[in-house]
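User: My instructor asked us to take a sequence, write out its structure as tokens, and then describe one feature of it. I'm not sure where to start. Here is the sequence I was given:
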Amino acid sequence: MKLKHFLDSKNYINPLKQILLDIEKGSIKIYEKFNEEHSDIFGSSGEHNIQGEEVQKLDLIANDIFMNRFQENQDIHAILSEENKNIIECHDQGDYLIAMDPLDGSSNIDVNIPVGSIFSVLKKIKGTSEQSFLQEGNKQQMACYIIYGTSTMLVFAMNNEAFGFTLNTKEKEYFLTHPNIKSPENGNIFSINEGNINSIEPEIIDFIKYCKQLNREGKRTHTGRFIGSLIADFHRNMLKGGIFIYPATSDKPKGQLRLIYECNPIALIADASNCKSSNLKINILDIKPSTIHQRTPFAVGSTNPMNKLLSFYN
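Assistant: Let's start with the prediction itself. The structure tokens for your sequence are:
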């Protein structure tokens, strides 16, 4: 079933349907940039974003593509992007807010590792646009990500259900391939950058040691898999069972990942697919942001691995 036909069959709010269709069209344009165009799209732009990170050319291209789609949508009041210091105001009469990382994992582009786009949709509340964006993640109306990998997939969560659609590259349409996604409760994959081992909390180190224990036959009980692309790591672990951890480090005591447009949407999809998420103290979705580009430690994954990790803190 095509995405549009699927949305027509569901009792979703019309503006949310249209936002998903905007994401669909924008992501297909980005797929075409990756695979069908020969212009100079790789490498650094020479710029740095608000977080001080080097901006890739495709970061700016993806940001422009989605900005243009969303700015044409009369239901969208404002947009918050990783690539923009300030909130982009759109339509006064619009009731919805978009927070996005237009191209997550962009440092992996030049070496052909999967990257993605992440979106959080909130409803406007009384006050300024900034106040509206500073809502807890459990107030999200919808979350979505695109993964550009061996195939291009769109995954979204709404009404506590998660669905996956795969791009048919000939028809340039997304088709339902993963109905009502539910992650296994157990999983033997752990995903963490062990290059940070000397700068992370002892509880995380103890969990890694636990994952590396052998069984009675001398075989490993877990396997380490770390791509270094949030969407790619989470997508694999959600489908196969596992845990992704990006904790605070001594040089990044507040964490690396952004709460509003990276962790919150992934956490909403995780919640809908039977996974759990935490900042290693409380559920990610219960955190009230204090700034629009706020960072946080982040752990997300299958229920039992998450419970085991959190048990080291308890």
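For the description part of your assignment, you could build on this observation: The radius of gyration is 19 Å. Try explaining in your own words what that tells you about the chain.
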